[in-house]
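Subject: design request, 167 residues
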């Protein structure tokens, strides 16, 4: 078992290495600890450490790939607000929209569900996703997702979670 040794990590950060964390909160905490380490060493100024969350790191890679004209990176990545708006539009225009109580709340949940499906590499064509009617939750989500993906294609956008496959 490897024991975490912050001094070794901070020395590597000081030399310019990058650390990718699971989320933005952890990257902020690690950067703050690095600052405390620098203060403890008597430093009065230092370069910000290169500590990035997974999403920020993917965003950086996406920008670099787009600047290098890597195939597939010409698509825009919608912001969180834009994604919610797209999902709300999909839900308002869905055949079962009448039965949806709060499409704006469901939009966030649908967005998060799609993100997990992509990250976990689940297959929406699997029989478990085919319900008996469009009102079955799995079947309804599958239809909404198809509409969402078509809307993204029409607007020249790529959902953030789809960038990994392109990169």
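Subject: RE: design request

Done. Sequence follows.
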């Amino acid at each position: 078992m490897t024991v975490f040794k912050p001094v070794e990590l901070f020395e590597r950060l000081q030399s310019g290495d990058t650390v990718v964390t699971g989320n933005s909160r952890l990257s902020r905490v690690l950067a703050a600890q690095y600052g405390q380490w620098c203060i403890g060493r008597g430093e009065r100024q230092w370069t910000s450490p290169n500590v990035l969350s997974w999403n920020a790191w993917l965003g950086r890679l996406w920008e670099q790939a787009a600047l290098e004209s890597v195939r597939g990176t010409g698509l825009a990545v919608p912001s969180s607000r834009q994604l919610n708006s797209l999902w709300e539009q999909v839900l308002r225009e869905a055949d079962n929209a009448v039965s949806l109580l709060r499409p704006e709340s469901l939009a966030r949940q649908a967005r998060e569900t799609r993100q997990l499906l992509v990250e976990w590499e689940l297959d929406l064509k699997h029989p478990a996703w085919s319900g008996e009617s469009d009102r079955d939750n799995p079947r309804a989500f599958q239809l909404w997702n198809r509409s969402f993906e078509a809307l993204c294609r029409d607007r020249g956008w790529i959902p953030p979670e789809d960038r990994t496959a392109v990169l």
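The longest helix spans residues 137-155.
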